[in-house]
Design goal:
mainly beta, 4-stranded antiparallel β-sheet, 11 strands, 7-stranded mixed β-sheet
Length: 126
């Protein structure tokens, strides 16, 4: 089992940047695919980005393409989500998820990810 915890959320003005971190403890995190999702009030959890255990395969949602970048540092057991050009519609609780078997064709489906963090709030003011 792996435990993941998000950090780095906060309040930022539109056009600003934030970097979220997903730190892991437990079993070897480097063997896990990691995804970022977000959920705004009254909305379903939405796929944002994901990275394979090797770091070779990466996907970003169309809504964040060219603004958000997912990356991982295996030495630090951490996956990052660099967010720039933030918009008010990016306001949500951001969650980190991990799974060691999920195919990349299924990365966009939240219910298929095995391990989840508690989330970190990102608020973008206009």
């Amino acid at each position: 089992q792996v435990h993941v915890a998000e950090s780095g959320g906060g309040l930022v003005q539109a056009g600003g940047s934030l970097r979220l971190s997903c730190a892991a403890s437990g079993r070897t995190f480097s063997a896990y695919n990691v995804g970022w999702f977000r959920q705004a009030p009254g909305k379903e959890r939405e796929f944002v980005a994901a990275i394979s255990w090797s770091g070779v395969r990466i996907r970003h949602a169309d809504s964040v393409e060219d603004r958000f970048t997912i990356s991982r540092d295996k030495a630090k057991n951490t996956v990052y989500l660099q967010m720039s050009s933030l918009k008010p519609e990016d306001t949500a609780v951001y969650y980190c998820a991990a799974d060691d078997h999920l195919l990349d064709t299924d990365w966009g489906t939240a219910r298929l990810w095995k391990y989840w963090g508690q989330g970190t709030q990102v608020t973008v003011s206009s």
